[in-house]
């Protein structure tokens, strides 16, 4: 019997992405799995239902979707929808357990094995499955465009009959995937770009993109997995003093700082915003985690004096077509770890091979990205963050 895989329509407010696109669905169908897409799932990404071709099925019946062996989603379904999933089935999606204890509780109650895409380890073998990076790339690109669109100034230097206009100065805080993409995009648009990261080993990457790397003396905070650790109070003071000086001269600031599984670190104080130039803007990509700026309000535009602070919580959804395409490919690569060929098919043609659902818990990627299994939360960081909430 074929493995059944289903993709529901996203229900979160403002979510336009979808977990499957036609060209990836076609590749998945070649594994001889039974793939079903919920009617209208691709509408937000401009993917009409008729883009999915036979043998891929379309359905508007919840039983067809949530009764599958594997459910693929961008965001975890609601607790009510999870209750319709069968015991022992698998969910692969972003979960953000620390923000969604009710979802984790529902997964455990239903006996669903869940893999959270934000937990995929940053190791070489998992690069093609790293959905956080693919979506952060989209966010960084769009953030630079948002900054350019929001400023009442040119980004590039312009030489005109009326004289020369100096390029705008853009400060990017955080040189991870989103930050590097923001740097590259702002640079392509002609801005003078500066960047800061507590991980000093990002200096070479920043400078390779043509930006100037800023350093706070005595602050170095590399941590496991390519992320940054939390700073001490003394380090925070040094960081803020350096940033305050550079923010005062910036036209646009893009913040991308994040600590996995925890609220976004507060880097920009109200006093630092007060010192910024009139008409300057802040694009806070940490908004969904509470914001890197004290004044940020998720999904709102805040005007503080003459500075405008934008707090978009789901920037990849603003580039739904390509964000969905990258995410679907991440899922396809991940699925090949758990949807594996049946034994004894060494001589079978690829089109004739049958596949089964099998989880190898000795696989580092599966072990580290698992959130729930057999009615229990198995990720230690999630257990610590949730306590008795799940």
Which helices and strands, and how do they pair?
Elements: E1 4-7, H1 22-29, E2 34-38, E3 57-59, H2 62-66, E4 70-75, H3 79-82, E5 90-94, H4 101-110, E6 113-116, H5 131-150, E7 158-160, E8 163-165, E9 169-173, H6 177-188, E10 192-196, H7 203-208, E11 212-214, H8 233-247, E12 252-255, H9 270-274, E13 281-284, E14 301-304, E15 307-310, H10 320-335, E16 339-341, E17 355-357, H11 364-369, E18 370-373, E19 376-377, H12 380-386
Parallel strand pairs: 1-2, 1-4, 2-3, 4-5, 5-6, 9-10, 9-12, 10-11, 12-13, 13-15
Antiparallel strand pairs: 6-18, 7-8, 14-15, 16-17, 18-19
Helix pairs in contact: 1-10, 5-6, 5-10
CATH architecture of the largest domain: 3-Layer(aba) Sandwich
Q: Detail the poorly predicted runs.
A: none
Roughly what fraction of the amino acids lie in strands?
A: 15-25%
The counted number of beta strands is 19
Query: Reading side by side through the largest sheet, how are the strands ordered?
Result: 3-2-1-4-5-6-18-19
Average pLDDT taken over every residue: 93
Question: What is the CATH H-level superfamily of the largest domain?
Answer: NAD(P)-binding Rossmann-like Domain
CATH names the topology of the largest domain as Rossmann fold
Q: Structural class given helices, strands, pairing?
A: alpha/beta
What's the helical proportion of residues?
Answer: 25-40%
Number of helices: 12
Estimated radius of gyration: 23 Å
How does the major sheet shape up? 8 strands, mixed
């Amino acid at each position: 019997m074929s493995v059944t895989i289903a993709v529901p329509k996203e229900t979160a407010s403002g979510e336009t992405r979808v977990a499957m696109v036609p060209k990836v669905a076609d590749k998945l169908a070649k594994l001889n799995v039974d793939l079903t897409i919920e009617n209208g799932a691709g509408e937000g990404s401009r993917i009409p239902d008729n883009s999915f071709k036979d043998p891929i099925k379309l359905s508007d019946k919840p039983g067809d979707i949530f009764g599958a062996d594997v459910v693929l989603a961008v965001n975890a379904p609601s607790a009510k929808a999870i209750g319709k999933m069968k015991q022992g089935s698998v969910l692969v999606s972003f979960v953000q357990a620390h923000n969604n204890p009710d979802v984790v509780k529902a997964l455990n109650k239903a006996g669903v094995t869940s893999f959270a895409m934000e937990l995929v380890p940053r190791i070489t073998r998992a690069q093609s499955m790293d959905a956080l990076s693919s979506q952060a790339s989209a966010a960084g690109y769009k953030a630079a465009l948002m900054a350019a669109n929001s400023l009442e100034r040119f980004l590039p230097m312009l030489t005109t009959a009326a004289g020369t206009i100096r390029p705008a100065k853009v400060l990017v805080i955080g040189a991870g995937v989103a930050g590097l993409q923001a740097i590259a995009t702002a640079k392509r648009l002609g801005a003078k770009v500066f960047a800061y990261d507590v991980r000093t080993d990002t200096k070479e990457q920043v400078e390779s993109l043509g930006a100037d790397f800023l350093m706070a003396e005595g602050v170095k905070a590399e941590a496991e997995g390519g992320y940054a650790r939390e700073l001490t109070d003394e380090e925070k003071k040094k960081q803020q003093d350096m940033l305050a000086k550079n923010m005062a001269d910036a036209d646009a600031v893009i913040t991308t700082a994040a600590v996995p599984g925890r609220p976004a670190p507060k880097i920009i104080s109200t006093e630092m915003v007060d010192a910024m130039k009139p008409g300057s803007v802040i694009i806070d990509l940490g908004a969904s985690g509470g914001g890197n700026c004290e004044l940020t309000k998720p999904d709102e535009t805040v005007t503080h004096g003459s500075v405008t602070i934008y707090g978009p919580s789901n920037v990849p959804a603003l580039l739904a077509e390509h964000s969905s395409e990258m995410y679907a490919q991440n899922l396809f690569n991940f699925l090949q770890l758990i949807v594996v060929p049946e034994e004894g098919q060494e001589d079978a043609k690829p089109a004739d091979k049958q596949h089964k659902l099998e989880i190898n818990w000795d696989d580092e990627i599966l072990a580290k990205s698992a959130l729930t299994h057999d009615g229990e939360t198995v990720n230690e960081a999630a257990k610590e963050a949730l306590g008795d909430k799940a």
